[in-house]
Structures are given as C-alpha cells and as structure tokens.
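My current task is to audit a protein record that another person submitted. I need someone to confirm that the token line plausibly describes how this chain folds. Take the sequence as given and treat only the tokens as open to question. This is what I was given:
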Amino acid sequence: MKSHLAILKSSAWVGGSQGIVLLFTLARFKIFAVVLGTAGFGVLELLLSTWELGYLIGGLGLAQAGIRYIASARVSTSPNTLPTTLRVLRDSVALTAIIALAVFYFFRGAAAGRVTGPEDAWWIIPVVGIGVFFQILCEGEKAVILGFRDAPKLAFGNTAGIIAGTLCSIGLVLALKEKSVAWVFAVSSLCNWLAMRWQRRRVDVSPTTSDAGGDASTATEPQDSYRSTLRGMLQLGLVLMPSACFSFLVLFLTKLWIRNHAGTPEIGESEVGLFGQAYKVSGLYVNFVLAAMAADFLPRLTESIHRAGEAIRNVNEQIEVGILMVMPGIIGVVLFRDAALTIIGSSEFVAARDMVLWFTLGCLGRVISWPVAYLFVAAERKRTFFLLESTSTVVHLALVWFFIQWFGTVGGAMAFAALYVFYGAYVTLVAGRGFGFRPSGAVVVTGVISVGLWMVACVLTTGLRAGSFGHVGGGVVVLAGTCGLCLWRIVSLLPEDSRLRARVLKVIPFGK
C-alpha cells in the first residue's frame, strides 16, 4: 500500500501541472479550431505530426535513454559515473538538435507540396525545424529532471512552458490566421525549452553520499568513460527512438491516407481535421494522467528491475492505479462526446463522434499495456523491446490500411482500438516469458469492470438522443457512479495511516 501512495504522490505534482497544461491545451485547440476551421485544422494536424516525428527521430531517443542512465548512475558506486552521464547527455542532445535543424532546412523542397500544400511555401518546413530544434533541447533538460525524480521542478517547468507557449501561439493565430501555423511550433517549443532549462538549472546534480563514498579507482573503468557511456546511451536511444516515433509515424501516415482516400484535397483536409480532433478529445485526459504517472515510473522501475518480484508488483500497481485514474475521464468523454467536440472545437467537429468511441477504447488499452512494456526498457532488453514495437507498428499499419479502405475515416480510429487489443496480449505474453510477469487478480478485475463501464456508456449514448433528458440524466448517473467507484478503490489502496486517506475520508466516509 505504501507503494500505491508513492505512485499517487509522485503523480500529484506532475498531475497538478498537467491539469494546467490540459486547460491551456483545451483553450489552444478551441481557438485554433474556431479560427482555422476543419480544413485549416487538418493542415495543422499534418504539420503537428511532422514536428512530432522530427523531434522524436532527430533526438535519436537520447533523452529517453538519458533518464534510465541517470537513474542508474545515481546508485552507482563510482564518483565519476553521474557527472560523465550528464555531460554525455548534454553534448549529444545539442548535437542532434543542430543536425535535425539542418535536415529540415536542406530537405525543405522535398517536403513542400507533400505535407504543406503549396509548393511555394518552402519556408514552412524550416520554421517547423526550428520548433524541432528547441523541442529536442527541451527533452534533454526534461531528462535530467526526470532522472533525478524531481517531480516539483518538472511540474513548474511544464506549467510555465505551456502558459507562455499557449499565449504566444494564440496571439499568432489571431493575428496571422493560416500563415501562423508553422510559427506556432517554433514559438511553443522555444517557450517549453526556456521553462524547462530554468527548472533544470535548479536541480541538485551533485553526487549523492553513496556516490562520493565509492571507490575512486573505478573511475577509469571502461563503463565509466565518456565514450562507453555515449555508446551505451546511443544504443539504447536507437532502440527507444523507433518505439517512441512508431505511433506518431502511423498517425502521420493515417492522416495522409485519409486525405488521399477522401477524393479532393479540400475534403481530405477536413476529414483529417475531424480525425485529429477526435484523437485529441479522446486522449487529452488519458495522456494527462499517463504523463503524470510516467514521470516517476521508469526511474522507480529501473531501481527495482533486478528484484523480479518487486518489479512485477510495481508494474501491476501502476496498471491498477492508472485504470482507476483514467476511467472517469474516458467514461465522461464517451457519454458527452458531442459536447466535448463542440467545446474543444466547434459544432463542425461533432461529425467525429463515432471515432471517439474507438479512440477511447484504444486509450484504455494503452493505459493497461504501457507499464508492462517498460519492463524491457528498465532491463535494457533492447532487441526484445524493438521487436515488440516494430511488430506492433507493422500490424497497426496493416489494420489502418484495411479499415480505411472498408470504413473510411472512422476506420483509422477502429484500427487504433484493434491495435491495443493485439498489443496488450502480445506484450503480456512476451513479458510473461521474459520476466515471469502475470497480471494480478486486482488488475484483471479492474480491467474487466472498466471495459464493462465503457460498454454501458456506449450503449447509453447510442440508444438515446444526444442532449435529451434521458441521455443527460443517465450519463450523470453513470459518470458519478464511475467516479465514486474509482475513488473508493484508490482510497482503499492507501495505507491506513496515510494523511491523504484521512483527508479523503473526512469528506467521503464510504471508504472506511
């Protein structure tokens, strides 16, 4: 139970900042959708995928690998391991950011006309490249904070970055309309980097007592050298990078296929806008929770990976708490998806309501499966992890192509849900063979109940007219019941002497 409390505490800091991030993100999407319309939002979606792929591929996964290496270096007995790791991360991230910017500039002509629309808009890709440059630097700063498990500073950095980036982006869109789209990524990424750099400079990166007391003779060992650390970090990064960008690559190709399948570019861009908005509405809250929980999960799992029983328990606890935290959001989005699409976008986007159902099911599968996959990252089983991610990507692409051919734009969302059914079973089977992992009874029960609640919400919204008394009344009852059930279960997982438990029980005594 104390480990459940640790998960919630670490999530609280980042979760609070992610709540602010969520509010400002909603405001940003709302204004973008109203000002740009479905077609303009479709162009924004294509550039967003280009930016995401750019910083994920351009960063070579070094920031993600750096989190794992810093967490490991902090418990090393060598006094030079931690400083060397930090220096390698700083130098390598700066170099990859410069290379990525150069690639975006020199290949601007190849991308113009394929992603940006008019071929004479050659400047759009280099401007997005500037955003990629600053985002890679931002991820490097964030890796240091996460490696030291300093949730408060990560929270402050996230909050400051999103507030500044949102205000600047909204000003650009209101002033320049469609011409501002590329500059949104450059300005937002710059704000993110400045805020995260400010917080990273406040992290105490000096060696711990155990490090300082280590045997100085080990400082010359190969594993502590700059070159070997760079080699190991690069190898792990090159495994993590494909897994990180695979989903964004599939999303990017899905948008291109949807645009091409629609017949005309104008209709295609509108369909891409609907698809992108449904994806965002479905994943906003889930991504908010996952980001809050992931901030501490990988370092904690890395520290326990050589104690198999503890590592498996950490994964099961993470899955259970994750489901309990995301279910109110998922059920709420399913029940009131018309209102959510209108509030976050406009009435034009209500046409994406059916896609939301499939996306939310896929998001639930992501919450259940991603902690299991982290076992391979923490143990540095690079080949197995790469095989998992690459196989799943091939399956996802096949599903997307098939479903879009038969069901049109909604097929992209159906493929997303089908992927996580496959991926959940696949990663659990491989983790069972590699680590002896088995889902706990609590995880199985919680997962079954969550799928049942999702089905109830789907039936309710399908059988009743949106906005009717029965729909609103029934939706409120189902959502309130889901919130109460999840809160009761979370409280029951906390230690009896926990102050958080005592505070909750003062307000809601049913958990006693």
User: Anything to note?
Assistant: The radius of gyration is 23 Å. The chain is about 80% helix and 0% strand. Confidence is low (pLDDT under 50) at residues 2-13, 209-224. The longest helix spans residues 2-58.
